[in-house]
Specification:
11 helices, Rossmann fold, four-stranded parallel β-sheet, 355 residues, binds 6-O-phosphono-beta-D-fructofuranose
Length: 355
């Protein structure tokens, strides 16, 4: 009898989710004789037994589509003991042999915890997030699309900033990891890049370098700031994150945002240079994946179906170098991969602090 495999997508949506779903179903049905069912709205769908059919016909032509045909939620199935029971019994009631969980550190962390508590809950994880902050894989799918969107947006800001002799402050996503700000900022030729990994001082790291640029006759400047960037507590009085809302989501994450406006106001006050800010926000997550993400997602989906066919469980698909392969999930899955020093170097080398 064909193995029955549930697929769910959890957490923030991300370009390439549909490509993973399509690839897993193609490989599973055509190469491994697997049968699939879609679980709607992430873990919430498993708790509520909310499913849709997932045949080859259902996944045809979804490769370039953004978002997720299965929809998503930030429901945490391991927050309460009763939800753990509901998730495990849902798996049985739906007649599943396997679950492919596509998500970031929260979704995969929950999958790992459920599997560790009950080895009959067979699970294969696929790492997703535009933030690229998952340990265990070199790259998550969705990141390449996000940095391309952000880079193209920054390119456009150069012409506006130059025409008006302004500073433009661009706030980018990424939570507590600065990958998006670093790579979009560098490829978009930003003059200043502020990352969560390097607490900054408003005078020394932002306004001072901008003042110098202005004095030397530079007509305009582009500042890229990661939404999770924070002030240097050693030198500034307030070392907290800039919070849009103090609310926490089900996984305990704060909602970040708002730092771009605060910095733009500071620049106008301290440097006396007309400044505007723009928050790229969810634009970075929407729409069609790049060719790189379509191919990576396809490889991830095929590898997930292979892992199920091989009978592996408690594994996550990862990219190591050029190889896509399953690795064991461990507690480290919850560890965030931040930008290391050898990458931060680029943010210093090519920006105004070095002028
Ligand atoms: O993790 C992806 C991400 O886009 C982060 O960069 C951002 O902080 C967060 O999700 C926003 O979440 P939401 O869509 O719930 O506002």
């Amino acid at each position: 009898m064909a193995k029955k495999v549930g697929i769910l997508t959890g957490g923030g949506d991300c370009p390439g989710l549909n490509a993973v779903i399509r690839a897993a179903v193609y490989s599973g049905v055509i190469e491994h004789d697997l049968e699939f069912v879609g679980i709607k709205y992430g873990w919430r769908g498993l708790l509520e037994r909310n499913t849709v059919p997932l045949t080859l016909e259902d996944v045809r032509k979804i490769l370039p589509e953004g978002g997720t045909i299965l929809r998503t939620s930030r429901t945490n199935p391991i927050k309460k003991a009763e939800d753990i029971d509901r998730a495990l019994s849902g798996f049985k009631e739906l007649g599943l042999d396997y679950l492919i969980a596509i998500g970031g550190e929260d979704t995969l962390g929950a999958a790992y915890r459920l599997w560790r508590g009950d080895k009959n809950f067979k699970v294969v994880g696929v790492p997703k997030t535009i933030d690229n902050d998952l340990s265990g894989t070199d790259v998550t799918f969705g990141f390449d699309t996000a940095i391309n969107i952000a880079m193209k947006g920054i390119d456009r800001l150069h012409t506006t900033a130059r025409s008006h002799n302004r500073v433009m402050v661009v706030e980018l996503m990424g939570r507590h990891a600065g990958w998006i700000a670093l790579e979009a900022g560098l490829t978009g030729s930003a003059d200043i890049i502020l990352l969560p990994e390097v607490p900054f001082d408003i005078e020394n790291d932002l306004c001072g370098p901008l003042r110098k640029m202005k004095e030397r006759g530079r007509e305009y400047a582009i500042v890229v700031v990661s939404e999770g960037a924070k002030l240097d507590v050693e030198r500034d009085s307030d070392g907290s994150y800039f919070l849009q809302e103090i609310d926490l989501d089900e996984f305990g994450h704060v909602r970040l945002g708002g730092i771009g406006k605060i910095l733009a106001d500071e620049i106008e006050d301290r440097v006396d240079w007309e400044t505007r800010h723009v928050v790229f926000g969810h634009l970075q997550r929407g729409g069609s994946p790049t060719a790189f993400d379509r191919f990576l997602s396809t490889r991830y989906g095929v590898a997930a179906a292979d892992a199920v066919a091989e009978g592996l469980s408690g594994v996550m698909i990862s990219l190591r170098g050029t190889e896509v392969k399953p690795i064991e999930m461990t507690d480290e899955i919850k560890e965030i991969k931040t930008v290391p020093e050898n990458f931060r170097r680029y943010a210093r080398l090519f920006t105004a602090r070095n002028e």
